[in-house]
């Protein structure tokens, strides 16, 4: 795999090399999220955005923890419904309790394809998954469903004639209205068979408090749209929206074994979640 020359690292304390195509002067959504989770696959420019967001979000470090926890609950639920193949769109950098780890802990034969267009995701994902024949990562823009769903590596693992778990976790809020996110979701929904499940998490409009966060994200990251519960529910058109509907992350099918902070803090109300089943 192409990598930058020796000596260029993620920071001065490491000798880790930077994949070709990574611009360390511009923040990346995947790397900012990694920084929020306390990961090491980020740069000073990403941490600067993280720090701004943390200043505006009391308990901000809990936001990605809620999001990881609800992802795990969603995957476990889908496995319990017989779903054994997953497409994780805009997957981001590997962290704890990744989709394949959760799914394969319940069904060792579950298959997972991660989709992202960040070159660091490809590099780190392939290193992590090298010995896992039932999981892969592909480089593609999730805004191009035809490209994603026709990818040879994806088709080698995913049978689109059988129900699929579609995961859009914290990705649709990086599309503005002009990019027609509802139409994008519909294209994926139409491409999978009945019995497939769609899981979405999304920033929830909380008035002026979240408007400040939105402004920072738009100015520093170029994306980060907060939408109302009704707008997020609209993404589930053509599916049966499962209980409890679209709710704040900590309230979506809570598991007493999850170790998460108080769900009704400000941080607990930043992102909402919902799941639909294609009839």
TrEMBL record:
<dbReference type="InterPro" id="IPR029063">
    <property type="entry name" value="SAM-dependent_MTases_sf"/>
</dbReference>
<dbReference type="Pfam" id="PF04672">
    <property type="entry name" value="Methyltransf_19"/>
</dbReference>
<keyword id="KW-0489">Methyltransferase</keyword>
<dbReference type="GO" id="GO:0008168">
    <property type="term" value="F:methyltransferase activity"/>
</dbReference>
<protein>
    <submittedName>
        <fullName>SAM-dependent methyltransferase</fullName>
    </submittedName>
</protein>
<dbReference type="GO" id="GO:0032259">
    <property type="term" value="P:methylation"/>
</dbReference>
<keyword id="KW-0808">Transferase</keyword>
<dbReference type="InterPro" id="IPR006764">
    <property type="entry name" value="SAM_dep_MeTrfase_SAV2177_type"/>
</dbReference>
């Amino acid at each position: 795999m192409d990598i930058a020359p020796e000596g260029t690292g993620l920071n001065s304390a490491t000798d880790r090399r930077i994949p070709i195509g990574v611009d360390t002067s511009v923040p990346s959504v995947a790397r900012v999220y990694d920084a929020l989770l306390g990961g090491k696959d980020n740069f000073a420019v990403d941490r600067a955005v993280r720090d701004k967001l943390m200043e505006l979000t009391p308990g901000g470090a809990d936001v990605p923890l809620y999001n990881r926890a609800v992802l795990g609950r969603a995957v476990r639920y889908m496995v319990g419904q017989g779903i054994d193949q997953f497409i994780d769109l805009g997957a981001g950098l590997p962290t704890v309790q990744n989709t394949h780890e959760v799914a394969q802990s319940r069904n060792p034969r579950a298959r997972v394809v991660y989709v992202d267009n960040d070159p660091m995701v490809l590099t780190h994902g392939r290193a992590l998954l090298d010995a896992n024949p039932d999981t892969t990562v592909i480089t593609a823009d999730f805004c191009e469903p035809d490209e994603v769903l026709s990818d040879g590596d994806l088709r080698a693992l995913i049978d689109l004639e059988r129900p699929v778990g579609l995961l859009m976790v914290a990705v649709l809020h990086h599309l503005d209205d002009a990019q027609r996110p509802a139409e994008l979701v519909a294209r994926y929904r139409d491409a999978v068979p009945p019995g497939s499940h769609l899981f979405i998490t999304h920033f929830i409009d909380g008035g002026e408090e979240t408007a400040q966060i939105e402004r920072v994200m738009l100015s520093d990251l170029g994306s980060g749209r907060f939408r109302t519960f009704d707008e997020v529910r609209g993404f589930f058109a053509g599916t049966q929206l499962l209980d409890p509907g679209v709710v704040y992350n900590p309230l979506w099918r809570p598991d007493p074994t999850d170790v998460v902070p108080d769900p009704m803090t400000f941080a607990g109300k930043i992102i909402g979640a919902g799941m639909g089943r294609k009839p």
